[in-house]
């Protein structure tokens, strides 16, 4: 199979459903942002040299493929055949947040992203996740999208923030609190 097909040369792409859509459509923007997040999660995994988060990151990457496939599907019959992100997945992510947050000092202020290489990349993943969330919300304004996908991305962004703090904590780097001007 060739990697190039030339079918997208006109600025349109295929979806899991009838027809083709513009590559700049809200649907393609949404699943493209989820794909971008998945790539950044791969970068995070590469920086997890101790393997602390490998299981969670691999699970998240698999869930991103499920979310992307759901976002790329417009045909109800095809949607029913997909493995999809579930409410149980959202609950599991909440448990992860609680587990990792239990090791951290209470948050008292806004934080500046950074610290260890792992934490900095987790913060980058968080911001990409928030963009993906915004793209899915925008798609939901014009097409029917299961609200579970928005909850999922919202929770993943929260998890990535906690994991960044946790990653810094593991290597003895304190959170850098934002002080604002004149503080």
Helix-strand blueprint:
Elements (H helix, E strand, L loop, with lengths): L11 E3 L5 E3 L3 H22 L6 H18 L4 H6 L5 H15 L15 H26 L4 H24 L13
Antiparallel strand pairs: 1-2
Describe the structure.
The protein is mainly α and 183 residues long. The protein has one domain (13-170): Up-down Bundle (Hypothetical Protein Ta1238, Chain: A), CATH 1.20.1200.10. The protein is built from six helices and two strands; from the N terminus they run E-E-H-H-H-H-H-H. It has a two-stranded antiparallel ribbon. Helix 5 (117-142) packs antiparallel against helix 6 (147-170).
The residue ranges in which pLDDT falls below 50 over 5 or more consecutive positions are none
**Number of β-strand runs:** 2
Number of domains: 1
Q: Roughly what is the average pLDDT, rounded to an integer?
A: 91
**What is the second-level CATH architecture?**
Up-down Bundle
State the CATH topology.
Hypothetical Protein Ta1238, Chain: A
Number of helices: 6
Computed over alpha carbons, the radius of gyration is 18 Å
Q: Kindly name the structural category.
A: mainly alpha
Strand content: under 5%
- Supply the CATH class: Mainly Alpha
Strand order of the largest sheet: 1-2
Bin the helical content.
55-70%
Order of helices and strands: EEHHHHHH
Shape: elongated
Give me the CATH superfamily. Answer: Cobalamin adenosyltransferase-like
Distance between the termini: 60 Å
